[in-house]
Amino acid sequence: xxxxxxxxxxxxxxxxxxxxxxxxxxxxxxxxxxxxxxxxxxxxxxxxxxxxxxxxxxxxxxxxxxxxxxxxxxxxxxxxxxxxxxxxxxxxxxxxxxxxxxxxxxxxxxxxxxxxxxxxxxxxxxxxxxxxxxxxxxxxxxxxxxxxxxxxxxxxxxxxxxxxxxxxxxxxxxxxxxxxxxxxxxxxxxxxxxxxxxxxxxxxxxxxxxxxxxxxxxxxxxxxxxxxxxxxxxxxxxxxxxxxxxxxxxxxxxxxxxxxxxxxxxxxxxxxxxxxxxxxxxxxxxxxxxxxxxxxxxxxxxxxxxxxxxxxxxxxxxxxxxxxxxxxxxxxxxxxxxxxxxxxxxxxxxxxxxxxxxxxxxxxxxxxxxxxxxxxxx
Length: 378
Hints:
Radius of gyration: 25 Å
Number of strands: 18
Strand content: 25-35%
Structural class: alpha+beta
Shape: globular
Low-confidence stretches: 1-18
Helix content: 25-40%
Largest sheet: 7 strands, mixed
Mean pLDDT: 92
């Protein structure tokens, strides 16, 4: 579930008029950057942060969205990895990190994607955008539409590279959500973000994400740096089945972004634990259903329910499954039939809807007659 549906599903607050439980607050590490956030990928829970919703220049973290849109077009077949893409003058003359593309030549879509991801090549990003949407302006429009669909509420893109430009901004929170969506929706391409080097036309360049060399649990994702943005990083690591995302904006230099990313990831793995409590579409219980063409109805939750708590606190978690006393057909798949209530340390913590996992129609007259008799006898 993660960022995917967590924020719309989790209702932490007051249940039955009682004070909700709250795990102890764990002080975050000292991070030398103006804005940052640490998030669990699967539960979507924010484990630590500062100024995480403040709009700032995102530098080349912009290319996370450029890649997301391009991956979506690959999935729909709008273009293929082996497509030969013509290099235009705008791509060839762009500044910053480059593959040193030459106008009038061609390169494969896969080469350009890897160049954009691994070495943050601006010329590759522009060539891909022009190929995918006729021109860069059209592609930027698609980036902003996708940002709204992913509920990146304070993100506005003006270009595909991350160059400093008025109005081009995002937040640590939004960029962490985008990172999580990219990992979730395109695992087949996400592996490219772990690639440490890339060679194009006999020129080998190296990934700027130093955490790929320092920490074997880190498998991505992107760095960026401009005069206005400072040094930016969104890093993800997977340790013992728990995936964390640390996003840092505005660090003063490369050493500061590396230190910040490593401190945040180590803090998360040391102090927190994420568990899958209930799997999507797997029955949590089966209940008696009256007047239907079947007598038992499986109930469960719509999305995988992951919960991140301080280490040791999962043992204080208890679940109650509350269902109406009498349930009758017809029932639509996904119809809310009850509540999964979580208690933490014997206090209310969160509620989730229990839904029907399959559709059940009305029974025939014989089935309904038997059920009416049984209900009357009760």
